[in-house]
Amino acid sequence: MARYPIWDDEWVRHLTDDDARQLLAIFEALRRVQFGTYGLCVNCGSPIDLDRLIALPEAAACVVCAQFEAAPHACAGH
């Protein structure tokens, strides 16, 4: 897991795996904001729908790519 200045080892040890994944996703979204790529799918480069970003601000993939990641056979050819 990437290191961030606000994380200390004691605090991180108490996070569940799901909490740690969510926090990392938030930090990665903030990094995309920094680089000017927030709102663009990290897989295909398409804009992520605004409704998706409102519901899931840390979303890194558009709906099509997210569905493909969840069920690779569902979106062949995207």
Notable features of this structure?
4 helices, single chain, 49% helix, mainly alpha, Four Helix Bundle (Hemerythrin (Met), subunit A), 0% strand, 78 residues
What report would you give on this structure?
There is one protein chain. The protein has 78 residues and is mainly alpha-helical. The protein has one domain: Four Helix Bundle (Hemerythrin (Met), subunit A) (Up-down Bundle), CATH 1.20.120. The chain is 49% helix and 0% strand. The protein contains 4 helices and no strands. It is globular, with a radius of gyration of 14 Å. The model has no long low-confidence stretch (mean pLDDT 83).
Summary of the model, kept short:
The chain has a single domain, classed as DksA, coiled-coil domain (Four Helix Bundle (Hemerythrin (Met), subunit A), Up-down Bundle). 49% of the residues lie in helices and 0% in strands. It has helices at 9-13, 17-35, 50-55, 63-70.
